[in-house]
Amino acid sequence: METTLGLEIIEVVEQAAIASARWMGKGEKNTADQVAVEAMRERMNKIYMRGRIVIGEGERDDAPMLYIGEEVGICTQEDAHSFCNPDELVEIDIAVDPCEGTNLVAYGQNGSMAVLAISEKGGLFAAPDFYMKKLAAPPAARNHVDIRKTPTENLHIIADCLDRTVEELVVVVMDRPRHKDLINEIRQAGARVRLISDGDVSAAISCAFSGTNVHALMGIGAAPEGVISAAAMRCLGGHFQGQLIYDPEVVKTGLIGESKESNLERLESMGITDPDKIYNAEELANGETVLFAACGITPGTLMDGVRYFHGGARTQSLVISSQSKTARFVDTIHLWERPKQLQLH
Question: What structural domains does the chain harbor?
Answer without folding.
Answer: 2-121+290-335 (3.30.540.10), 131-284 (3.40.190.90)
